[in-house]
């Protein structure tokens, strides 16, 4: 079976940063891939694998999506033209996607959370999620469900090996 271009594109990601807490703190409803408008020294810093999505979030201002609080450290070899580490960065999406997101964010109690930052075919992309915040009891239920699933898989492995 031959691989399609889409399969190659999915495997052609060089992940720079991930937001591991996002899936714990939010219920992910939908994901989008967006381009990021960057300066030259930001791209060079990202190629070195430096970035932090820990406090990052996205907002909608005047029909545009902005990524805020993304930390890209200054490029080590940069000069006085270096970038500000926590500046606001514009996200590139199709107009229909932006309009759809604006409606959903305003109507429901939803937020835009970046899940990962990666290179795709030489361009910096961010995986943006439309998410709803979890309550404390939801987080506990998810942890309990994950532990139960892990125990079931472990027990099935034991039975397959003939230990029980």
TrEMBL record:
MF-aspect GO terms: RNA binding
GO biological process: trans-translation; trans-translation-dependent protein tagging
Name of the protein described by the UniProt record: SsrA-binding protein
Cross-referenced InterPro entries: SmpB, SsrA-bd_prot, SsrA-bd_prot_CS
Any Pfam family: SmpB
Keyword Cell membrane appears in the UniProt entry: no
Any single GO CC term annotated in Swiss-Prot or TrEMBL for this entry: cytosol
UniProt function note: Required for rescue of stalled ribosomes mediated by trans-translation. Binds to transfer-messenger RNA (tmRNA), required for stable association of tmRNA with ribosomes. tmRNA and SmpB together mimic tRNA shape, replacing the anticodon stem-loop with SmpB. tmRNA is encoded by the ssrA gene; the 2 termini fold to resemble tRNA(Ala) and it encodes a 'tag peptide', a short internal open reading frame. During trans-translation Ala-aminoacylated tmRNA acts like a tRNA, entering the A-site of stalled ribosomes, displacing the stalled mRNA.
Subcellular localization(s) per the UniProt record: Cytoplasm
Main location: cytoplasm
Taxonomic lineage from the root: Bacteria, Bacillati, Actinomycetota, Actinomycetes, Mycobacteriales
Domain of life: Bacteria
UniProt similarity note: Belongs to the SmpB family.
Keywords from the UniProt entry: Cytoplasm, RNA-binding
């Amino acid at each position: 079976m031959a691989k399609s271009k889409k399969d190659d594109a999915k495997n052609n990601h060089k992940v720079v940063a991930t937001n591991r807490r996002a899936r714990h703190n939010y219920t992910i409803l939908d994901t989008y891939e967006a381009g990021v408008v960057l300066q030259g020294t930001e791209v060079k810093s990202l190629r070195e694998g430096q970035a932090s999505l820990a406090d990052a979030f996205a907002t909608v201002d005047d029909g545009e999506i902005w990524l805020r609080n993304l930390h890209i450290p200054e490029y080590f070899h940069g000069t006085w033209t270096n970038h500000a580490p926590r500046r606001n960065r514009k996200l590139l999406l199709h107009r229909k996607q932006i309009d759809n997101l604006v409606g959903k964010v305003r109507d429901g109690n939803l937020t835009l959370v970046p899940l990962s930052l990666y290179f795709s075919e030489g361009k910096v992309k961010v995986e943006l999620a439309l998410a709803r915040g979890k309550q404390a009891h939801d987080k506990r239920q998810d942890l309990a469900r994950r532990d139960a699933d892990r125990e079931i898989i472990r027990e099935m492995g034991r039975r397959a090996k003939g230990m029980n």
